[in-house]
Amino acid sequence: MMGPVSLTLVVAALVYWPALGRFGLSHSEGHRAIPGWAMLEDGFSLLPRLFEHLYLRKPPGMPWAVGAMSWLLGTTEFAARSVSALASTLAALITCVVACAWFGRRAGAVAGVAFCLTPLFLYPGRSAEIEALNNLFTLLSMLGIIHVALSPKVRPLAVPAAMCAVLAMLLVKGPAGLPCTLAALVAAAMVRRTSTSAASTLRAVIIVAVSLLGFGMYLIGTQRAWEATGEPAITEPPSHFLWNPARIAEILTLPLVALASALPQGAALPLSAMSPPLRGLADTRARAVRLACLLSLLAYAAVGVANPRYAMPALSILPLCCGIVAAQWSTSPFTPLRTRRRLAGVTWVSLVVVLLGTWGHAAWIEYRRGWRTSGRDAGIALASHLPDGAVVHAFELIDVRPEVAWYAQQAARASGRQVRFLWDPYPGVFGRTAPPALPPSGHFLLLRTDAGRRDQYPPEVPEYQNAGLLDRLGPPVAVGRVHQFEFMLYRVP
What we know:
Layout: H1 4-16, H2 29-42, E1 49-50, E2 53-55, H3 61-73, H4 77-103, H5 105-116, H6 122-125, H7 131-150, H8 158-173, H9 178-191, H10 198-229, E3 233-234, H11 248-252, H12 254-261, H13 268-274, H14 280-302, H15 312-315, H16 318-331, H17 337-372, H18 376-383, E4 391-394, H19 396-400, H20 403-414, E5 420-423, E6 427-430, E7 444-448, H21 460-466, H22 469-473, E8 478-482, E9 485-491
């Protein structure tokens, strides 16, 4: 019979790895993968670039990971998405191993498989998005804090390992997972047993403090490197995702909505609190895990997060609650042996059913993502209108769907032509007040022409129309569409 680790590994392999490279990049995958591929060509640095423009919306952790994986596997969609698949697989294995160590082998098997089959983690684990990698390091930081703060004896490597996990989390997505780390610290302090010395809690505090210091040094280094370039950069302040009075209802209901989004695993949090308690240190750790998850969700609501997707790091520890429930019911004297055997049979049947449902869900999501929304076909079609040596200036289309430009570049390169795309912000961005200007003669201008969302940048087409520049461009060279976005390609006379 398969052990917990082997079972978790098999389920993770079946869920996260098949056919990762079947579809082109879509949605915001290009923002994560293309800077990593650029680093692979130009060298790794603190300052990621997207089509030769500084791109500092996120720290460079994900581009570094994509670049490293692409160095091993090639510059492909499979390599870019394998970062998330590997992160999700490791997160499931870590959940399994920790549950085995803390609550027993049965809990480890349930927790590891529960992570693999959590519907909320499916798309992030099979895409070149940033969430899966951030979830991995957030989970590691929470478990590391709880382990250091609650274990009577801590191995020497546990403290630096926890520091590395917290620092890696910050380098992947900045402070997005920090509420979870702080919640784990508070939860461990609240449930600390008398047998655990106060020095253990102090060590956990030092872990967080030193990690934040290291991240602060990174921010200083990035700022100095940015200033040395003298170039503007695309940035995104955290306040963009926080308090918005128009979304007060979503903010107040965030914890409940987030748990509902993780169903059926989301039910494990209240169920474990109502189930018979475990014994000794195992029960203390179980209470810390539950409290850390709950406090994390409350912390996200407190800072004004309205979208449950951004609370996903708090739910990374939720599958461990599934293992806790399994340990509670399997060890409780109130659960007869006959009932335990029935529960084991139901668990195996449920595993097969949920696995089949997961595959169907993945197929439907990837159908919508790959066949209907990827910019690969639009980019290949665009490449046919670009001669050798063409220089294309664009902003909004690259801002929403950068893979169009990347696929156009690759298609041109495959036919022996060199095409250069420049992410060129138009006036009005970065506080500019100068009127728009056309690129040099002979260059191309790629304008997004749909109405779209204008909540971050002013519309670019009216800017050029009001300055009388579109009339000077003449008819477009090409017209295209990717998902709901439309664009036109002009050649500057």
